[in-house]
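Audit log entry. Action: structure prediction of a protein-small molecule complex. Ligand: copper (II) ion. The ligand was supplied as SMILES and no pocket hint was given, so placement is left entirely to the predictor. Protonation state taken as written. Sequence taken verbatim from the request; no trimming, no tag removal. Recorded inputs:
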Amino acid sequence: MKKFLNISIGFLIIAFAFTSCNNGESSKSNSALSTNAAEKVYIAPGEHDSHYAFISGGYSGNLTVYGLPSGRMFKEIPVFSQFPTNGYGYSEETKAMLETSYGFIPWDDSHHPDISQTNGKLDGRWIFINGNNTPRIARISLTTFETEEIIEVPNSAGNHSSSFITENTEYVVAGTRFSVPIPQKDMPIKDYKGNFKGALSFISVDPEHGHMDIKFQVLMPGFNYDLSHPGRGKSHGWFFFTTYNTEEANTLLEVNASQNDKDFIAAINWKKIEEYVNNGGGTMMPANYAHNVYNETTHTATSTIKKEVRVVNPAEIPGAVYLLPTPKSPHGCDVDPTGEYIVGNGKLSANLTVHSFTKMLKAIENKRFDGDAYGIPILKFEDVLAGSVEQPGLGPLHTEFDGKGNAYTTFFISSEVVKWKLGTWEVIDRKPTYYSVGHLTIPGGNSREPFGKYMFAMNKITKDRYLPVGPEMEHSAQLYDISGDKMELLLDFPTHGEPHYAAAIPAEIIKNNSKKIYKLSENEHPNKATSDADTKVIRNGKDVHIYMTMIRSHFSPDNIEGIKVGDKVFFHITNLEQDFDVPHGFAMIGANNAELLISPGQTRTLIWEPKQVGVWPFYCTDFCSALHQEMQGYVRVSPATSTLPLSWSLGE
Amino acid sequence: MKKAGIIMIIGSLLLLGLFKFPLWNIMLGAPQYPDPLGMNIYIEGIKGVQEFDLQNIDGLNHYIGMKTIPKAEEMWEFSLFPKVIIGMVILGVIIGLLGYFEKVSYKYFLGWFLLMSVLGVLGMYDFNNWLIDYGSNLDPHAIIKVTNSDGTPMSYKPPLLGFQKLLNFDVTSLPHTGGYLMFLGMLLTLVAFWLGRKVSLKQLNNTPNKALN
Ligand SMILES: [Cu+2]
């Protein structure tokens, strides 16, 4: 009977939500047509956009690069997924990037990109993104736009409250959405409560090279840690995480995790924990996680399995962690540019809750606690509340800030973005989105200095916005001009995968640092061939290594004989070009993995295992020159018993 | 004559700029090269404007059968030119000094200028010959053969001075900093000559008067 009652309450809420969304401004509006929106997003041929937007690819495991205001897609950067377009995750050099403690995992669910900062401002050196499914954090270089490092996060599951970074890129966090037994063990699921834990991982970033290392993990009570944001300015040194399922339910969470009137925002004083750890605090715990690093001069990634991780129990560090009661399963956890306000968007709450950092410190000072959870003090709601925005919409998710004292919150159920004022909590403007908006992004949103000219909303449902393409559509993003008092919808553009969240930055901060070629003289790949004189073919048992070069419009060598069925052929190919944007491709008939796309000055290796006798062609896949079609060669494959010696040639 | 001598010395010394700055510059722009490829011609050799320009020019030129751009050691000019320039600088400075102390006539300034002009014209003539050879002495196995309307093979000779369209490339050939410094230096030696002549004519005018007294 109790279960039935719970389910009915659940249905009631959903029914309320969906009927309410039919009121008000949900009818399709074409207000953009009445303005000069087209002019505002028009980038004439040959001209550059003013901003880069890095939109997560969600279940594509990628990060896509767009221009603003045009909405044009420039690049898809493979991060957690194999990418046949260039052989990432298939070539011998890049396979190691996708190694984990579970073995090779060629996909993930990439969610929240965040750009590195110095003194609270975007510095445009790297962008970080989390892999949600197999907990991982990746670092992508913003000079090469390639994934340079991936670290797996042990003791974690559903790496969702990631990858947000502190204001000097001291740490990137990886908070677990799902709590799990730590260490993992075989136990009844119904014994979840009190036995599962949530690991919040603080990953340090080397200021010079960006290399990541898990400094410590805070083992929190078994709640779900949904989203997070670092403090900044006055609250620098703190990190805030929203929680849901403080009920610690383990089944039918839509109902059972929606029972408490208030969940929490966990406030973590990471400077305090860092000090504790630096003084030898915490314990090293056995663990098993991969750390994959790509070297730009050897053009090769290596994967190392790490065997331990430092964990800390928050109850043992007085003053390090507090819980701020926040209504109704908060999702987004967003800190304003001054660092004073912490917005907790209760998904099921009618109002938006905003906490005050100053009031929080005062309440801590006065020890105004309302009990504790597993030894972590709970503050009183009224003592930390800065104010609330009354009835702004339905299903609040995420908030960003324009740097001019305004906040913009997305409402999933009522499909809209609402602009409101910090401090007075009054709603200033609202604009519909098409449809079911998740995150929104203002360039520099997670920093002390947002660039509040544009805002874009990332929508989950696209139906009827574009020409239909069958039952499944790409998601869509919508760009708004927020420079005036009222938001103005400028553009719809399709995105690839799930545009879960995005980071954006003015183009001038990074475009001049973008690398044009890899210098051959700096190529330290062990199997490079930097001139035709270096090319050769070497047999080592059944392994045959072909050291090959490519340049417009030939491979060297282009005729190779003496390969046998059952051999394992390694094509080590170096692109000799030193010209911007002149990659060459390599495709071998019958290769069971992928093609390669090799950048100027880069070396890549593809394995081919010939299974049939014959003379088999290879060719360049990237239309590189007037004689691209002629860029080809042959491999002669003889029977396994053949005694034909290896030979290779070009121009004979 | 003191002033003229100093100007003569400065003029000759300006030639030293040729050891630091390029004499000439040739830029090649095309639709697929929005940042044009370029070569800077120094008296000691040819360098790319950007690090890999020469390699990329050679890479493109192989389609039409042009030879690769010569290295410094492959052309006698690049070992001779620096010597000639150094010689002319030393000569100019000596003439200037002698002029300053009024040991030689201003006419030597003009003499230096004329010698430098003759050497310059010879240099340009040699440079043009090289351009002709570079642009028309093509590999018979070239991948792309373009003929003029009269059936003769097209020449890819870059212009000696100015702009020309060569297939898809816009080619511009102009003096560069070193060249401009050389022209300025030569102009100064001409100024020195003119100044020396003026002073000397004045002295000439004064002398007969003195004689009359
Ligand atoms: Cu090619």
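Audit: result stored. Chain B has a mean pLDDT of 89. Residues 177-212 of chain B form the longest helix (36 residues).
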